[in-house]
Structures are given as C-alpha cells and as structure tokens.
Write a structure and sequence with these properties.
The complex is a heterodimer. Chain A has 9 helices and 2 strands, in the order αααβααααααβ. Chain A is an all-alpha fold. In chain A, α3 crosses α4, α4 runs antiparallel to α5 and α6 packs across α7. Classes of the chains: A mainly alpha, B alpha/beta.
Chain lengths: 269, 218
C-alpha cells in the first residue's frame, strides 16, 4: 500500500518482473508461430534504452538553473516538433517549416510560460522541472494540431481549388473565399484535443494524472493539475492550428485576391 | 466596355497567347476559338485576374482592375468555369452565395428573379431547395449560368458554356444565353472550340491560333 505523500521506489527486480510479463508474451508468440517475438524484443529494448536515456537527460536538464543554459534545450524541442509537424502533411510550400516553427514557438511558449509563471507560480518561472515537461505536453499536442490543420488546408486548396476560385470569380475577397477551408482546417486540427477533453476521466485516465497519483500526490491536487494541463494543451492546439492556417492563408493568397495554388507541391516521399 | 490590351498568357513557362488586343463593346458577344491547348481558358482566367498575364493589361470602362478593386472588378466581369462548380447546399444556397460577399455592396438576394432565371435556363424552379450537387452535370451548368446572370455583371466570361449539356439541350441554352445577354445589354467573351457555336452565338470570333507564340515564331 502506498503511504501518502511518499513514493514506493521500484527496484531492478520489480522492473524485471514487469519484463517477465513481456517475456511470457514473447513465449506465446514463439509457441503460436506469430513471429512477433523479434519485434517485441526490439520494442522492449528500445523502451528501456530510450526511457533510461531520457531519464538521464532530464536529470541533467533539471539541474540547469539559468535561463540561457535552458534555451538550447527549448530550441531543440521546438525544432524537433516543427520538423515533425511539417513532415507529416502530404503537401508543402516554400517557407512552411519556418512558419511552423514560429507558430509553435509563440503559441507553446506563451501557453507554457503562462502556466509556470502565472498559474502555478513557479519561482523562477523557467524552473526546468516544471517548464520542460509542461512544454513537452503542450508542444506534442500543438504539433498534432498544426500538422492536421496544415494537411487539411493544403489538401483543400489543391483538391478543391476550383471551388475557391469559383468564389473568387464571383467577387469574393480572398478571406471570403478561404473562410470555409480555413474553418474546416482549424476544426480538423482541434478534433483530437476536443475528443480527449470529452472523454477525459470517463474513458481514459490521463498519463500525467495517473503518474502523479502513483507517485503519492493527493488525487484532488492531481486532478487540478490535469484540468490545467487539458486547458493548456487545448489552448496550444487551437492557437497553433489557427495561427498556422492563417499564416498559410497569407502565403497562399495574394493582395490581388488570387489563390497561388502553384506554390503548393506534393512532398517527395 | 472591356479592353484587352496586348495581353499575353503563359503556362508552365511556355507563352500560349502573345499580345492579343480585343475591345468588347456594350452588348457585344465575342467568341475565342482555337484548338485545344492554345490558351483559351488561360486567357479567360487572366482576364478575370485569377492568374497574372505574362504581359499586357485589362481595362473595364478605362479603369484597371486594381483601381476598381479586384473583388468588385470580378463582380462586374464574372467568369463561369467550364466545369460546373456548386458548393454543398441547396440550389438556392448556391444562387444566394455571392450576395453574402462584401462586393455585393448590400444588394439583397433577388429570390423571385432567381426562380425566373432558373426557369429561363430550363431548370424547374421546384429544384430550388434540392441539394445542388445531386443535379445532373447539365442541370448544374445551367444553375451556374443562371447564377452569373443573377449577379448583373457588365461582362460575362464563359468557358465552354454548353460543355456539360446533352447535344439536344445545347440549342435552347444557346438561345437563352444570346437572348438574356442582349436583353440585359451585357457583353460576353465566350471560349468555344466549336466554330459553328461561335457563329451561332457571337457577333464575331477571334482565332487564338493567330496569337500563338509558336505560330508567330514560325
């Protein structure tokens, strides 16, 4: 039984017992000739290696006490997220990467710093033990939102170009002609987080909250943190989706109210 | 009314039409003819300002589209695509759509006139509330033509306006186009590959082959 406000540490033996469960699964795979044992072994190895590595990295990052020393870590996270976000859509245009980076940097940092500096009141506001995990969660969801919204926007402007141009040809301004694709794309970017918010606590228990409770935190406190997190990632994903779609709109329509569909190109796989 | 001055259009880095000049008088219908790929549609798009021309310019009553404002210019020089384009929603929604734009300057959707125009173009007004995209291609093309007339433009740019119609329906739509254009005092620039249609429908025809960059060079 966990004692309140204390954490039961896991010994190496405890982790080995958990690993034994995977071994049993591997054994079943061998017995039934499912040929999944190799992949399971690799996945298990990667899980251990990646988590040990991130544990080590986080330990070092959490020791950082000055803002300038933390900036490279934040930059690395932002660059990786932006790179991933623009790598998923099937189409792209020149300048998409820098725009995604700027959008994600502004929205994620604004949301995260509001949380650490204003809501939680961490002192200093950039204390890595708070800033980095929160930024990671916000960034992960913003990245998904940006990626989905951009993909849908570029797909619409390519596949349904004639609809947008039909509106322009009848006197619509670029904003009037793009309004429908813009709202559809932002909606697309927000679907995952809206779905999560709808079922949180009913269908799924968020990992962060579960982790906090297992680590001995009072469930009431864990719940409040989780509510804050849900609002943060909702704000990050929606502002990121909106920002990215609006910046793409500015890039793909000009002041002559023309759709510059020639700028959109299929991504080389 | 509408002046095309030394207009050139290019696609994929290749000049298709070089330095064409056409003046459309009020009430005049002019056909743009030529073989497929000679730049008829590209020229029409450049006139509407959906693409930039490679050279030259367009004037409406002596004013540049930029001076008029592109949306207002396009409201007065309406392009109807070869492929009927209707958005999800009823026929009425599609006819009313452009009246929500700022370029309408507060003009209200004339519902009665819309029904009459639909009927004139051979669409039963009972289809008014039907989902527009469930109509046949031919019926959709008629709705698109009716919508263009409803906007009361000065000039119509029609790209193959009967391409989606059955052969037996072409004649009646041609008659309606001709009658309505003259009755309303509009000008029309009509792209057609069919020289017979150009003769039936228009006051004169311009052969774009005469302005092809390749031909000129040859």
């Amino acid at each position: 039984m966990p004692v309140e406000n204390s954490v039961i540490d896991l010994s190496t033996t405890d982790v080995m017992i958990a690993a034994a469960l995977v071994l049993i699964s591997g054994g079943i795979s061998v017995a039934l000739k499912l040929k999944m044992e190799g992949k399971l072994a690799l996945a298990s190895f990667r899980t251990v290696a990646q988590l040990l590595l991130i544990g080590f990295v986080l330990q070092k990052v959490f020791e950082i006490s000055t803002l300038p020393a933390l900036i490279p870590v934040v930059l690395f996270m932002l660059l990786t997220a932006a790179h991933t976000a623009v790598g998923r859509p099937a189409r792209t245009y020149a300048g998409l990467g820098p725009l995604a980076f700027c959008t994600m940097a502004v929205t994620s940092l604004a949301v995260t710093i509001t949380a650490t500096g204003l809501i939680i009141g961490v002192d200093p506001w950039f204390r890595p033990a708070y800033l980095i995990p929160l930024l990671g969660m916000v960034l992960g969801n913003t990245m998904n939102g940006v990626s989905l919204a951009t993909d849908h926007f570029l797909e619409t402007l390519s596949e349904r170009r004639h609809e947008v141009e039909m509106e322009l040809a009848m006197g619509a301004t670029r904003w009037e002609a793009a309004r429908r694709p813009i709202s559809d794309s932002v909606r697309r970017g927000m679907i995952p987080i809206i779905n999560s918010m709808m079922v949180v606590g009913v269908v799924s228990l968020p990992g962060m909250m579960t982790g906090q409770i297992l680590a001995g935190t009072d469930p009431a406190v864990a719940v409040k943190y989780q509510i804050m997190i849900m609002f943060m990632i909702a704000a990050g994903a929606s502002m990121g989706s909106m920002g990215m779609v609006l910046l793409s709109y500015r890039r793909l329509f000009n002041s002559k109210h023309q759709l510059l569909s020639g700028r959109i190109r299929a991504r080389r796989k | 009314m509408l002046d095309l001055r030394g207009l050139s259009v290019a696609a994929g880095g290749r000049v298709l039409v070089s330095g064409i000049s056409i003046t459309l008088e009020k009430g005049e219908m002019v056909a743009l003819c030529g073989p497929s790929g000679c730049g008829k549609t590209s020229l029409l798009r450049a006139v509407a300002g959906l693409d930039d021309p490679a050279g030259g310019h367009v004037l409406l009553n002596g004013l540049t589209p930029c001076g008029i404002g592109w949306p207002r210019f396009r409201r007065r020089v309406v392009l109807v695509d070869q492929r009927p384009v209707l958005l999800p929603g009823s026929v009425r929604d599609n006819l009313a759509l452009p009246f929500a734009y700022a370029a309408s300057m507060g003009a209200r959707f004339p519902e009665e006139e819309a029904r009459t125009l639909l009927e004139t173009f051979g669409v039963n007004p009972e289809r008014f509330t039907q989902e527009a995209r469930t109509l046949s291609q031919g019926q959709q093309q008629r709705v698109c033509l009716a919508r263009a007339f409803l906007l009361k433009p000065d000039v119509l740019l029609l790209d193959e306006p009967t391409s989606a119609l059955d052969p037996e329906a072409v004649s009646s739509v041609e008659n309606t186009l001709r009658t309505e254009t003259l009755r309303r005092g509009l000008s029309a620039l009509i792209v057609t590959h069919d020289r017979e249609q150009a003769r039936r429908l228009c006051d004169r025809a311009v052969d774009l082959s005469d302005f092809g960059a390749v031909q000129n060079a040859g």
